[in-house]
Specification:
- It is built from ten helices and four strands; from the N terminus they run βαβαααααβαααβα.
- The protein is an alpha/beta fold.
- The protein has a four-stranded parallel β-sheet with strand order 2-3-1-4, with helices on both faces.
- The longest helix is centred in the C-terminal third of the chain and has 28 residues.
Length: 286
């Protein structure tokens, strides 16, 4: 996509959170004060990038991709039982986060045809089901790549400036939370299932590629202002997570105007799977 405008200069207080893989714990463990902000601190908006874990409907009108879920039984537990393009039976982590922060109940997809101007002021979702850090991942799934999501974000900034002016736009962006959730499609689909990268890279070198892609995304986006196979998947995931954590530490040292946090949800989720008996009724009903 062609960039609509030069990248904006954002104040130094922009906060970017890079979450790898899932935020399922937000969904399954939503409790009082799950995300408690310091006194006198408020978040005006939440901006989300990533894949199907956070996508709230951006793929609905993308007829090139099979990664769509705007049809039953998706959404059966959503308000009115309506499928919205969310990859689940109800709300997704994007929605729970803005709700927990007291911003609004749902985070709309930026490409939702029914989005209202007021929605832009409090944040939107750019995530696209099937996307990944590896550009090939998005290409294989015909999803909106992370670079494409940045293009849409810049378009969004232009619309926001028209709505509230440049000063207010800069304030919103400087004090908002940015979430990036990606990586699972790279490892599960592009590397292991399709073998599209397996012939070129071993696991260490592929996770290096993923980290470089994630780092490049953040440099652009934090700008300025059977069991054996499961073990291989987990080993690849842990290797990527370790490298990504170190890369974020390096980026924080070299990009003083950005604050990037690494949230580990892999190990808590793995503990739920391995030690399921510690988390309530172990019986599953389908």
């Amino acid at each position: 996509m062609k960039l609509l405008s030069p990248p904006p200069t954002l104040p130094s207080s922009m906060c970017i959170l890079l979450l790898r893989f899932t935020l399922l714990l937000v969904v399954s463990c939503k409790t009082k004060a799950l995300m408690e902000l310091p006194p006198n601190v408020s978040v005006p908006a939440v901006i989300v990038f990533g894949d199907s874990i956070m996508d709230t409907g951006n793929n609905n009108n993308n007829l090139k991709t099979l990664a769509r879920c705007n049809f039953p039984p998706y959404g059966k537990d959503f308000k009115g039982g309506v499928p919205t393009g969310r990859f689940g039976n109800g709300k997704v982590p994007s929605d729970f986060i803005v709700e927990e922060l007291g911003i609004k109940e749902l985070l709309p997809a930026y490409l939702d045809q029914n989005i209202q101007p007021s929605d832009l002021v409090t944040g939107v979702c750019f995530a696209s089901g099937g996307a990944g850090y590896d550009a090939l991942t998005s290409e294989l799934a015909a999803a909106i790549s992370l670079s494409g999501q940045i293009d849409l974000f810049r378009e969004y900034i232009g619309k926001l400036k028209m709505l509230v002016g440049e000063d207010r736009t800069n304030f919103i962006l400087a004090n908002s939370i940015f979430l990036v959730v990606s990586g699972s499609n790279d490892i599960s689909n592009t590397y292991f299932l399709s073998h599209a990268r397996e012939v070129q890279y071993d696991i260490p070198s592929y996770t290096d590629l993923m980290v470089r892609s994630a780092s490049n995304f953040l440099k652009d986006n934090s700008w300025r202002n059977s069991e054996r196979m499961c073990r291989k998947y987990n080993d690849a995931s842990k290797l990527f997570n370790s490298k990504l954590s170190k890369e974020l530490a390096s980026l924080n040292r070299n990009l003083p105007n950005a604050r990037m946090l690494y949230l580990d949800v892999y190990n808590p989720l793995l503990d739920i799977i391995v030690n399921y008996q510690n988390y309530g009724n172990p019986k599953f009903h389908f």
